[in-house]
Amino acid sequence: MRSVLLCILLQMVLLPMPVWAGDVLTVDIYGPGQTKINVFIADPLPREASTPLTAVPENAPATLQQYIQSNCAFLPFFSMVSGRDVVGGSSPGGYVAPNIDFQRFKLSRVDVLVTAAWQPRSGGLGDVELRAYEVFSGRLIVGRGYTVQNRQQLPEVAARFCADLMEALTGRGDFFRSNLAFVKRDGQRKQIFMSTAQGVGVQQLTNLNGVCMSPSWSHDGQKLVFAFLDEKGHSICEWNRQTRELRRLKMPGATVISPTFTARGTIAVTLDMGGSPDIYELNPDFSIARVLEQNWGIDVSPDFDQTGSKMAFVSNRLGNPQVFIKDLTSGAVSRVSFDGKYNTAPSISPDGKLVVYSHLINGYHKLFLADLTSGVERQLTFGPGSDEDPSWSPDGYFIAFASSRAGGYQIYVTTKHGDEPILIPTGPGESFSPAWGKL
């Protein structure tokens, strides 16, 4: 795919304007609160007036526009503007700045205008130029060109452009450069699937005669580990993205619970070798390297920040399941969750500052967020059903989780600010246990 897409045109321009340099359009998605900017995706235009847009095969211009529109809808700091709301009609008049009537879009309160220009190409769909302009100044924010060979490449073109646009506005574009692993039912079996973070390109990774559980990506996104249960007992499985090979090994003890990768690429997992489940770190051959957490109670669900200095986990050492943090340098353990009697499934943010977890309220699970610096806990999700199994995005802004809010369990995404959850389409049947990883 990388070899056939040629990103050859128009480097991103971010020169500060001489008069109002301090007003260059940006969005602070990581600070307290967030602003919204109004975005309009213009209808595609032909690059040359002599070649009509209909000469581009397979309705590719309209399809790419729909993919970009759908991608932008996942970003809570974007407010999409309808063509009906643009003063004087939705056509920008051209696809490059000198030909665009920015004044009409200013009057329509559009902040960012996206244009597309197509030229058909023999042997493929065509060449497309995508641009995003800051309407107030007419400044080019992002400009990219792609040669598209077939229809299957259109989602990746849209994802690449949206990643660059998001990075230009927020400093990070990881949402469109990441993917999700999750579990889906297959009759009595459960299998591991994978898709982009937008739910595009859903593919089945396993076809095992048993139950796959609790997938977790390595921090570099190259390996996936999960627990597996069949009639022979519990095993640990590791899937390699590059080779697509699956390694499986029966572990000592009766259970294998929630394996995950540490920051340095080793695997941590809960085993019950000592009479109660404790957390162990494994060697590359899956042999036991050391004990990470051991207590008279049950210790499960380890998760690590990117520095490898902190491990979040669940323990019932105080009588009920609660979330704890262990400083892996000093060995000190501190309690994170204080409200309620059933708090599970912690996921620590990549920077190690926040922990999101599932909190049981009135028979339903909701997501709560704990600030490890201030000690403040707050509820992130509301509404019907249960919200479970949270997983941070690699940029530490989005949170994927499984929810029964619309009936059967499906995957949704919200943000660290608790924005309205958006459904990730993963195909027919229930989906749960999302794990967010880098591409």
SS summary, helix count: 3
- Mean pLDDT figure: 91
**Helical proportion, percent range:** under 10%
The main β sheet shows up as: 6 strands, mixed
Going by helix content, strand content and strand pairing, the class is mainly beta
Shape estimate: elongated
The N- to C-terminal Cα distance equals 14 Å
Determine the strand fraction and express it as a percent band.
35-45%
Low-confidence runs of at least 5 consecutive residues:
1-22
Count the strands? Answer: 30
Rg, nearest Å: 24 Å
Short description:
This protein is 8% helix and 41% strand. By secondary structure, it is mostly beta strands.
Question: How are the SSEs placed, and which strands pair?
Answer:
Blueprint: E1 37-41, E2 45-46, H1 60-73, E3 78-80, H2 102-107, E4 112-119, E5 126-134, E6 139-148, H3 154-170, E7 178-186, E8 189-196, E9 203-204, E10 211-217, E11 223-230, E12 233-240, E13 246-250, E14 256-261, E15 267-271, E16 278-282, E17 288-293, E18 299-304, E19 310-315, E20 322-327, E21 333-335, E22 343-348, E23 354-361, E24 364-371, E25 377-379, E26 387-392, E27 398-403, E28 410-415, E29 422-424, E30 431-438
Parallel strand pairs: 1-3, 1-4, 2-4
Antiparallel strand pairs: 4-5, 5-6, 7-8, 7-30, 8-9, 10-11, 11-12, 12-13, 14-15, 15-16, 16-17, 18-19, 19-20, 20-21, 22-23, 23-24, 24-25, 26-27, 27-28, 28-29
